[in-house]
Design a protein that fits this description.
By secondary structure, the protein is mainly α. It contains three helices and no strands.
Length: about 90
């Protein structure tokens, strides 16, 4: 859950981003998604102190897992994928 989730997309963006526009775009998408998920996890953990976070935890985890699986399948088929509910920060 910690910032380790940002390492792979950032490494791809910095190392191979100039080689392929598709790879650059998908690495930016993944990085934006992981940044957004990190922010949402921090908010959810904070909300656990008032017990609301416990209700948000399962749907957030499920959303993250499903989104990453769909993105991986699409990327393996060389199809672009835009993560839902993601603010484009990069």
């Amino acid at each position: 859950m910690l910032p380790w989730r940002l390492v792979a997309p950032l490494a791809l963006l910095l190392s191979k981003g100039t080689d392929s526009p598709f790879l650059r775009q998908q690495a930016k998408e993944a990085l934006n998604f992981q940044l957004m998920m990190l922010i949402l996890w921090i908010i959810t953990i904070g909300l656990m102190f008032i017990l609301v976070g416990f209700l948000l935890l399962p749907p957030l985890a499920l959303f993250e897992v499903i989104s990453v699986i769909i993105a991986a399948v699409r990327a393996s088929e060389a199809q672009p994928f835009r993560y839902p509910l993601t603010v484009r920060l990069i």
